[in-house]
Design brief:
The protein has 18 helices and 2 strands. The protein is mainly alpha-helical. It folds into 2 domains: about 375 residues, Na+/H+ antiporter like fold, CATH 1.20.1530; about 40 residues. A two-stranded antiparallel sheet has the order 1-2. Helix 1 packs across helix 6 and helix 1 packs antiparallel against helix 18. The N and C termini lie close together (about 10 Å).
Length: about 425
């Protein structure tokens, strides 16, 4: 297919996203205040707990089968590579631009975590719906695109709330009553305020997988174990027993302090349920298909899920409003992140995916290859705004980065999408 035809096929979905994003920004400005701060929090909560899980569940349940799970095994590896390579590039950027210490986690998070949910689930199905799309039949393409993008969204959610979350956490200057904040974020992820972060009485230095609240009883237990161990050092059996007890105590403490609940977001739970329904034949016969006894349940969930795409796009525009007035600050850092996300990382992605295809690690599906390539060219994840609010570190800088990167992504995603479609055909 000619380059210009591919360019216009790639341009139309991005223009649709831009128009809806611009509408969200307009609705959020003070003159209209339709998507004000309270409205955004409430709408974000509905998206987080209802729309996203419904869309992920319905898309995966309808299209994922045991055979397709085996064929899609490379996607989690590909997403991990985007995070690891982005982190390495972010470390280089931190050294070159001499970023302040309290912003190291934000820069690394923005370079590593791409928007693996919102944009793929908007752009990829929209490409399929364009007349003259290069991926074949519109209905089949759209169904597969939703399945691939939903899996990308679910995996991206797990990586962001485990990998990127702890990057920001490690470099945050203070972690403020972190166990409580993380628990509150699961109950209402968009209602986080900075009051806890500004209260020095509840803060301590942030360490990975370590609670911010000191536990004197646990430290006393460790002191007791150490004293017992030292007094019985002459007896080998007793010493081995004490070592085993100390190790078990440390493991129990680590498990208690690891906030595993934050990994099981509603999106992840929806993905797990969708995979179970799609893979287990008995469940699939009951719920999936026009002849299924409970197909009305699947249809209802799908109807709710389809509301996710326009609402998320409006919220992306509304959440960018904070960055409009601060674009002149941290110029070098913003430019560096744009270069990493819009130029360097997508180029590296081409080499990785072409190498995987040559090694036959990826099954020959142009749409699947296109999505894997697109995962390298996405702007930073919107969830980073929530993560920076959790720790009160770099909130204003995050809004600047989001505004600048998403503005540039309008051009870069279009150009890279055009090149990717040309490459996989």
């Amino acid at each position: 297919m000619e380059f210009w035809k591919l360019f216009f096929v790639a341009l139309m979905p991005v223009l649709k996203v831009l128009l809806i994003t611009a509408l969200g920004t307009i609705l959020a400005i003070d003159r209209f205040n339709i998507l004000g701060q309270t409205a955004r929090k409430n709408l974000n909560t509905i998206v987080y707990f209802v729309f996203v899980p419904a869309l992920v569940y319905s898309s995966l349940a309808e299209t994922i089968t045991p055979r397709s799970v085996v064929r899609l095994w490379f996607m989690p590896v590909n997403i991990l590579l985007t995070f690891v390579i982005g982190t390495v590039l972010g470390l280089l950027l931190v050294k070159l631009t001499r970023v302040p210490n309290h912003l190291h986690g934000l820069v690394l998070g923005c370079c590593s975590a791409g928007n693996l949910g919102n944009l793929p689930i908007i752009i990829v199905p929209a490409v399929c719906k364009q007349s003259g799309n290069p991926f074949g039949d519109v209905n089949v393409c759209t169904k597969n695109a939703l399945a691939y993008a939903s899996l990308s969204m679910a995996l991206g959610s797990v990586y962001i709330w485990s990998y990127a979350y702890n990057l920001v956490r490690v470099y945050a200057p203070k972690v403020c009553n972190e166990a409580k904040i993380a628990e509150n974020s699961m109950e209402n992820p968009m209602s986080i305020t900075k009051t806890d972060a500004e209260n020095p009485s509840t803060c301590s230095t942030g360490l990975p997988f370590v609670s911010a609240v000191g536990d004197k009883s646990q430290s006393q237990d460790h002191d007791k174990n150490f004293e017992i161990h030292s007094t019985n050092s002459d007896h080998e059996n007793t010493e081995e027993t004490q070592k085993g007890e100390m190790m078990m105590e440390q493991v129990k403490t680590l498990v208690k302090r690891m906030n595993l609940k934050i990994l099981f977001t509603p999106c992840t739970i929806g993905a797990i349920l969708g995979l179970i329904i799609g893979i287990v034949p008995q469940f699939r016969k009951v719920l999936i298909g026009d002849k299924a006894p409970l197909h009305v349940v699947e249809d209802s969930v799908m109807m709710v899920g389809y509301a996710c795409i326009p609402v998320m796009t409006l919220l992306v525009g509304a959440n960018l409003i904070k960055g409009l007035n601060r674009l002149g600050k941290q110029f070098a850092v913003v430019v560096g992140i744009i270069v990493v996300k819009c130029i360097i990382l997508p180029g590296i992605g081409v080499c990785i995916i072409k190498g995987a295809i040559r090694l036959r690690l990826i099954h020959p599906d142009p749409l699947y290859e296109f999505l894997l390539l697109l995962q390298f060219a996405l702007p930073p994840a919107v969830a980073l705004s929530t993560i920076t609010q959790l720790f009160g570190a770099g909130e204003s800088e995050c809004s600047v980065i989001m505004f600048a990167t998403y503005s540039c992504a309008a051009v870069s995603v279009t150009l890279w999408s055009t090149f990717y479609m040309w490459l996989v055909l």
